Amino acid sequence: MTETGEPDRPVKDRPWVMRTYAGHSTAEASNALYRTNLAKGQTGLSVAFDLPTQTGYDPDSPLSRGEVGKVGVPVPHLGEMRKLFADIPLTGMNTSMTINATAMWLLAMYQVVAEEQNPDLSPEEVAHQLAGTTQNDIIKEYLSRGTYVFGPEASLRLIADMIAYTVHEIPKWNPINICSYHLQEAGATPVQEVAYAMCTAIAVLDQVKGSGQVSDDDFEKVVGRISFFVNAGVRFIEETCKMRAFVQLWDEITRERYGVQDPKMRRFRYGVQVNSLGLTEAQPENNVQRIVLEMLGVTLSKDARARAVQLPAWNEALGLPRPWDQQWSLRFQQVLAFESDLLEYDDIFAGSHVIEAKVAELVEGAKAEIDRVQEMGGAIAAVESGYMKQNLVSAHAARRARIESGEEVIVGVNRFETTEPSPLTADLDSAIQAADPEAERAALASLEAWKAQRDGTEVAEALAALAEAARTDANLMEATLVAARAGATTGEWAGTLREVFGEFRAPTGVSGAVGVAKAGADLSAVRERVRATGEELGGRLRVLVGKPGLDGHSNGAEQVAVRARDAGFEVIYQGIRLTPDQIVAAAVAEDVHLVGLSILSGSHMELVPDVLDGLAAAGLGDLPVIVGGIIPASDARALVERGVAAVYTPKDFGLTEIMNGIVDVIRAAHGLDEDR
């Protein structure tokens, strides 16, 4: 008791690390944003890299057109990494880097910058002080995000090399962040999210163990440095139970499969980004309460509480959030951690029969799915066969069908749509931040200047040594560090390994996916229109669904392809990462009636005109083109003026309505009368 007779307040737990996922335009602009966020009380950095950096291309690659600085910061060489972390002491920072295929390269540049910041310390001393995480989960890239470069075998080799290096040289670093976040975005149920993340962890740990680079004594340290990155949806009771299921299963797998004895090394360590898929363009102010509910799902349960949390902003379905929007999301966390009494209590769900029953149900379902994947040869075999991808596409299709039928309610979208005008979106163009249109030019100039001042011979020798090491079983981290210090670029590092390892195209999962179980009157009516219009034009209607540029977010394109197939169209979908020229060539070869482009990276104003110009040059200037993505209203108007027949954004959630619109566009393009 206190002197005034009041009960003593419990000692609070330390709050989780608070991050904001950020990075855009240029290294200088991102650095200013990081330092501002740290001054506002953010306790860790979470770096978003642009798509060329994530997929191993320099800004001057044709595939980088329109993508530079759009969804993150471009880091094509060591000079830009220096600018990114200027005046931020890396030996005292906890940095999360969302990077996968090129994770080894980005970690090497990060380490070299830290060495340069601490010239009085040896490289080994600097490395031992670094703390943070590289996402480095390539399996979910094959399944959901699409920023893979190499095939599964080579990718797992790079991951194992990084793990072995960090456990010895950067012991406070999490070398892989097994990421179920994007699995949920791609449609995963809670059972699938838990099961496929665990299958990924098993594949990685088996690879490390089989590589012989880590002793049995050090293997427990490897397990202890594995971290996870999960998604938290709005069903926060179910999400709370999902996290408790993760904790239980991870403890069991690491103890029984790998013999880890130290309970601390078996601890399920995870960070979270709450669900961006559930954020709506319609009535976007409702996203605030969605984000708070999702945050509660990973913080209320002490026994399964996140170690780090980063929240999206309320307006991410509209475009790039402004610094103020990111500050608002940071304040959500700070109010919960510092104003509420949450951190003063033990687990508030312990002993709840409701929670325990749901956790048991999730664990049972996840174990069964893990067993199915292991029986077919593990996660890699399940990726290559398309099994996991088909399951995700099918689960996503089922969810979309529930939303369209109204079975799953989205407030402001399919129910309670009447709304007062929102002051937050009165001026849509100012409600988001525009990407710097000069970012690509600045990156190109930086790349040219960098190459002009470096020692070209030293770079060539370092890249040759990297290629030679890649042809052996040597750990590639050392050769990568040499290349970084010599001044190689991101594209040169990845290009060197492409020459050795080759490239890979993951299965799309569309052909084997299960579509809408109950067609209903609306879809039946569209099928009849598709059939009748095809007869009038002399054959079955064919649509090409294309993903130009480096954007690997294929969920929307996949769902359009599945529903179009269900509606009776013949669908041509070739997957992600196509150039405009490749899309035009496919349109010519397949003699399609319409081209649909899906772009979520913000590169629509560059890539869509390139496709239109290519079609015109190929004699298909009258072929209708529609576009879908996160496209601001002003850009949508500009695209229509440029010749696009229709623009769809997240507010257009009715896929069957979109199919009907496609028929309208095709009929208008061919001058057909209205349906009789």
From TrEMBL:
The keyword Cytoplasm does not apply. Residues 540-669 form the B12-binding domain. InterPro entries: Acid_CoA_mut_C, Cbl-dep_enz_cat, Cobalamin-bd, Cobalamin-bd_sf, MeMalonylCoA_mutase_a/b_cat, MMCoA_mutase_a_cat. Gene3D superfamilies: Cobalamin-binding domain, Methylmalonyl-CoA mutase. Keywords: Cobalamin, Cobalt, Isomerase, Metal-binding. Pfam families: B12-binding (PF02310), MM_CoA_mutase (PF01642). Its cofactor is adenosylcob(III)alamin. PROSITE patterns: B12_BINDING (PS51332). Belongs to the methylmalonyl-CoA mutase family. PANTHER family: COENZYME B12-DEPENDENT MUTASE (PTHR48101:SF3), METHYLMALONYL-COA MUTASE, MITOCHONDRIAL-RELATED (PTHR48101). NCBIfam families: acid_CoA_mut_C, acid_CoA_mut_N. Heterodimer of an alpha and a beta chain. This is Protein meaA. It comes from Nocardioides pini. The lineage of its organism: Bacteria, Bacillati, Actinomycetota, Actinomycetes, Propionibacteriales.
